[in-house]
Amino acid sequence: MQNQQNLEQQQNLEEQQDLEQQQNLEQQAPQHRVALVTGAGKRRIGNVVAEALARRGFSIALHYNRSANEAAETVARLRLWGCQAAAFPADVSEPGQIERLFDQVLQHFGRVDVLVTAAAVWHRKPLEETTAEDVRRQWEVNTLGTFLCCRRAGLAMAEQPEGGVIVTIGDWATRRPYHDYTAYFISKGAIPTLTRSLAVELSRRNPKVRVNCILPGPVMLPEYLDEHEVRGAVAGTLVKRAGRPENVAQAVLFFIENDFVTGVCLPVDGGRSIG
Ligand SMILES: NC(=O)c1ccc[n+]([C@@H]2O[C@H](COP(=O)([O-])OP(=O)(O)OC[C@H]3O[C@@H](n4cnc5c(N)ncnc54)[C@H](OP(=O)(O)O)[C@@H]3O)[C@@H](O)[C@H]2O)c1
Fold first, then answer.
1. Domains in the chain: boundaries
2. Among candidates 42, 44, 37, which has minimal Cα distance to 63?
3. Dist. CA 6–CA 217, nearest whole Å
4. Which of 152, 164, 199, 263 has the most neighbouring CB atoms within 10 Å?
5. Is the distance from the beta carbon of residue 43 to the nearest atom of ligand 1 less than 6 Å?
6. Which residue owns the Cα nearest ligand 1 atom 46?
7. Residue 233 and residue 174: Cα distance in Å, rounded?
8. What pTM value is reported for the model?
9. Which fold has domain 31-274?
């Protein structure tokens, strides 16, 4: 009889401890997950990615450079959906502005769980006219800006027990560059290496931080391309059509959800890279 009572008391104690542990875990879990998307003011790829993340319940830190009005309109739209959203400006070629961007985002939201780096420049120029300044400028925005954003976000994520996910954006065409964009391709060629390097570095600080890269094909071609150029880009895909920015957003969600994938580059290009 005494033994039976002791056993029941022991079981009750263990159940009580389990309950308390569960409550502690729930208190520690983040109330909201925060995604920062760079280059997301204008209705381009970053903006569509930000919307997709908002639909998945993320609070959104929307970065922009010059597109202040579009960024404000997007924030207003996301808030109508019940999403916590705020816009933050920065020129990502200025290291000081990136520091300020992250200070503001972390002060506002308290954490960062996802970073998607969609801010970039893409300038056409024949090789003969490409200057050192052209190469430097595109490298500063596309490569250095991406690196500094990823490093700051990654180190913040490494401090969080839940870690975080970084998704960089390169370009399928660094494997087979087309004409007149040498400075751009030089800057984008570093993105896969940067991705792998940060995946390795950050996993050592917190194995729950993952870094992956998307290599888009023609998903949102610039308006200044003529019909011939657009037809050429589409003809080069295996699926014989242009993609959509939503295809990139789907890949971002995949990288967030699949916690066994890190350090990889995923072409989202309709088969353009093997076409
Ligand atoms: N579009 C495609 O089909 C395609 C194909 C292959 C690869 N990609 C890659 O996918 C990514 C997104 O493409 P996208 O076409 O959406 O890009 P995008 O329209 O060329 O640029 C996105 C945003 O980058 C921001 N940006 C430019 N310079 C900046 C700076 N110095 N500081 C901060 N932000 C700056 C601009 O923000 P503001 O407007 O606020 O100034 C711009 O709206 C890029 O990395 C691009 O290389 C795109």
1. 31-274
2. 37
3. 68
4. 164
5. no
6. 120
7. 15
8. 0.91
9. Rossmann fold (3.40.50)
